[in-house]
Amino acid sequence: MIEVTVTRKLQEAEGICSFELVRAAGGALPPFSAGSHIDVHLPDGLVRQYSLCNHPDERHRFQIAVLLDPASRGGSRSMHDAVQEGATLRISEPRNLFPLVHDSGRTLLFAGGIGITPILCMAERLASGGAAFELHYCSREQARTAFVERIRASAFHDKVVFHFDDQGEEQRLRAFELLQGYRSGDHLYVCGPGGFMGHVLDEARRAGWPEAGLHREYFAAEPRAQVEAGAFEVQLARDGRCFQVPAERSVADVLLEAGIDLPLSCEQGICGTCLTRVLDGEPEHRDMFLTADEQARNDQFTPCCSRSRSPRLVLDL
């Protein structure tokens, strides 16, 4: 864990604050790559993930931005209300589950709302390397759009197109048109609300893009239809212990209560922090981290949200 101080807190747009973090003891922060995020341990004990949005060459600070979510489970509310300049926080080292492919041809970046945070860091990296790219930034209205002035003053401002829902039909996002002409080596990166990402990815597929060229990052799990949850058993392969997982509790809850060392972060199946090998049994995947092919192999699952189709799962723990 790294102890950091909040040296700057800015209102970047309506409902969005940015936070500049520096190492509390002084000195450089760990290096990170475009698309990286950090875990932030909040004053109320919650842990939340936020993408780094400053230039990846910077070592003196990390910058994150947080949207105040009306349906907040406590994280964004705590960041906005309880974390002020001068506060001390604990954070993880950066991790990257949304990396850039650096030997690509054309790169298309799509950001929806607060999804600009990892995308902005990618644009900084691509621009500094002289790569060919476009950034399409979509938002309901400019007042709710973070980093507009920063982007307009940047060296890559001519590669960015804003799409505001309240500013006329002519500047609405027409993803299918933009995604025409796929060539081998092209890559698309999208981050934002689930519906926005689903639309961009579906239009890319319709335009002939292969799955290998499509990259996305979820900030929160999409609401899902209520699925009946039954009880089952998990067994730890290394010492043979077995635990009952009742319908109303997650595997992670049960294992943590038993003192099992299980890394946990988002608790929604979007980050992959708790990903665990399955040695026997059939998981019922409820995550948004694994690809469909990875889920079909049934050799790993996310104990924070996924369950079991078989009476028992044997875990590599």
How would you describe what is shown here?
This protein is α/β, with parallel strands linked by helices. The protein has three domains: 2-91, Translation factors (Elongation Factor Tu (Ef-tu), domain 3), CATH 2.40.30; 107-217, 3-Layer(aba) Sandwich (Rossmann fold); 232-315, Roll (Ubiquitin-like (UB roll)). The chain contains seven helices and 18 strands. The protein has helices at residues 75-81, 116-128, 148-152, 175-178, 194-206, 251-257, 292-297; strands at residues 2-13, 16-23, 37-41, 47-51, 62-67, 88-91, 107-112, 133-139, 160-164, 187-191, 214-217, 232-236, 242-245, 276-280, 283-284, 300-301, 307-308, 312-315. The chain has a six-stranded antiparallel β-sheet, with helices on one face. The chain has a five-stranded parallel β-sheet with strand order 9-8-7-10-11, sandwiched between helices. The chain is globular, with a radius of gyration of 21 Å.
Number of domains: 3
- CA-based shape: globular
Taking strands numbered 1, 2, ... along the chain, how are they ordered across the largest sheet? 4-3-6-1-2-5
CATH class of the largest domain: Alpha Beta
Fourth-tier CATH superfamily name of the largest domain: Nucleotide-binding domain of ferredoxin-NADP reductase (FNR) module
Radius of gyration, Cα only, in angstroms? Answer: 21 Å
CATH architecture of the largest domain: 3-Layer(aba) Sandwich
Residues in helices, as a percent range? 10-25%
Structural class: alpha/beta
- What is the element string, with H for helices and E for strands? EEEEEHEEHEHEHEHEEEHEEHEEE
Stretches where pLDDT is under 50 for at least 5 consecutive residues are none
From the N-terminal CA to the C-terminal CA, the straight-line distance is: 23 Å
Mean pLDDT: 92
